[in-house]
Amino acid sequence: MIGRPKFVLASGSPRRLALLNQAGIEPDALKPADIDETPKRGELPRAYANRLAHTKAETALASVKLDDELRGAFILAADTVVAVGRRILPKANLLDEAAQCLRLLSGRNHRVYTAICLVTPKESFRQRLVETRVRFKRLSSEDIESYLASGEWQGKAGGYAAQGIAGTFMVKIVGSYSNVVGLPLYESLALLGGEGYPIRLGWLNAM
Asked: How far is CA 52 from CA 36, 57, 101, 109, 141, in A?
């Protein structure tokens, strides 16, 4: 599209890509950032999400600057964290991790934080943190065992995917649903639009 600035999503998440596509935005490239995501000792969930999003954005910027086709692109990075109080839940890769997360979330409120970090063509960094409160129903042993068997939890923060089967566990949600999926659309588009990215350019082709 002539005249449209380049846009890079610093993520390989199919959920984040689908959400952007829903808003009529198609990234020119995906630049997943391979970084150490280990929380620092005593690090709180908000600070952790902000740090990782900023680090992902910096890593993607370093890669984009080496690419003649993408240099000067808008870059959007994000990190989603599920927390119970001050406790950061892992991105579950093992069955035991997912089971522990689900037992902890059962019948309780938790918070989902997504930090988004936008790098402008002039290499300025703009950052926001979005918080959503979620309450799960009390999960039976059968609920947990069946969900674990589905495999849907793999690689998901807190061991669940809101847009899948686990959506049936959510009794109440206060705040952005797209945030729980992995990218708060309103805030992401507000950041992009505020920095001059033509967010409505793709709307005619969004249907």
From this structure: 9, 9, 21, 24, 34
Task: Enumerate the β-bridge partners of residue 125.
Answer: 119
Q: Is 159 exposed, middle or buried (0-12, 13-18, 19+ CB in 10 A)?
A: buried
The pTM assigned to this predicted structure is: 0.91
**Per-residue pLDDT tens digits for 152-203:** 999 999 999 999 999 999 999 999 999 999 999 999 999 999 999 998 887 7
CATH 3.90.950.10 fits 7-205, yes or no: yes
* Residue 68 designated active-site: no
Give the C-alpha separation, 110 to 186, whole Å: 21
Structure tokens at 166: 């686990």
Written as six digits, the tokens of 150 are: 């589905």
d(CA 42, CA 46): 12
Residue ranges per domain, the chain?
7-205
Residue written as token pair 């990190």: 79
Determine phi and psi for 147, rounding to 5 degrees. -65, -40
* List 28, 68, 79, 143, catalytic entry: 79
